[in-house]
Hints:
This protein is of the alpha+beta class and 369 residues long. It has two domains: 3-230, Hypothetical protein, domain 2 (Endonuclease III, domain 1); 243-368, Nucleoside Triphosphate Pyrophosphohydrolase. It has 15 helices and eight strands. The strands form two sheets. Strands 1, 4, 5, 6 and 7 form a five-stranded mixed beta sheet that branches. The longest helix has 16 residues, at 96-111.
Amino acid sequence: MKYTQRLSSFLFMPNATIAQTLLAWFDQYGRHDLPWQHPRTVYRVWISEIMLQQTQVVTVIPYFARFMNSFPDIRHLAGASEDNVMQHWSGLGYYARARNLHKAARHILENHAGVFPENIDEILALPGIGRSTAAAILAQAYGQRHAILDGNVKRVLTRLYAIEGWPGQKTIENQLWVLSENITPRQRPADYTQAIMDFGATLCRRSQPCCSDCPISDHCQAFQQDQPQRYPSPKPRTSPLPIKTTRMLLLKDEQGRVLLLKRPPSGIWGSLWSLPECNHDIDIADFCRERLGIEARGMKTGKVLRHSFSHFHLDITPISAHARPADHAVMASDERVWYNSRQPDSHGLPAPVKRLLEPTQDKSNPEQE
Length: 369
């Protein structure tokens, strides 16, 4: 069947009934006590939507609470240092989200007098906000009717209408946007937006969907086929994830502090503070002396730590050593810091660096190791 023929047949399905059923389900079983719902201001909705991108609610909640405590509004966020913002994001992953939040807050302060815009085009002009996120913010904060298409909604729609093909493919995504727009009701758009996201997260799950408890199973083509796990189609993968390797240096001074370097603003762990890295084909002592201005002694190799990204695995070999200043400094002072892992401060750290530093927290002077 041609694409246009299939799509036109979907539009005659009882979408109003489906939306009303989901709203009735939400009223009884939906999540009504999420922290960003009380109060449900546009600022709190915006921060939560960015945090929830590719991250589960249970993971986001404690980060959201800390973030709100330190940055209760746009002016506080815009006025904060990038280091402070990144520190509050440390461990949440996808760090470009935090950098974009910070940039967006400053843009709003400079161009919208600190008031979050209500127009979708103005919201889409903010760093880090795409179509679905903008729609979710407008629906939940301002009650505007906008269709959303996050991962949960994609999964619900592909099962409901038995859509073949990977949802990340442009033609499939466009098809899902049409369906999402068609099914979104004009009444209670804020509740409906939360309802379909909750439904996808709690019942129409990626694995082991609860079809027996599903209120719209009578309308679900995947359920009628008895193949809910078939949808959505997985992303085509032609080969296993590549494996990259690096060595991270835990260089400790006489006070037990560890040297951290600030990473460039773009790329992996952009603007975070990380351990110095040294390729396997480089002599560590020479690297420390020539690049860091440090004499490294008593080197010990630790157990390899694997950290996985969406597109590759990173195998990290930790090397610990005692550090003494060399005869000359080779880096600007604002690019490096001696970090006391026993008294964490506002420096944002990547998750694997935090893990590598954990064993040092209860140890005394490195000379005694």
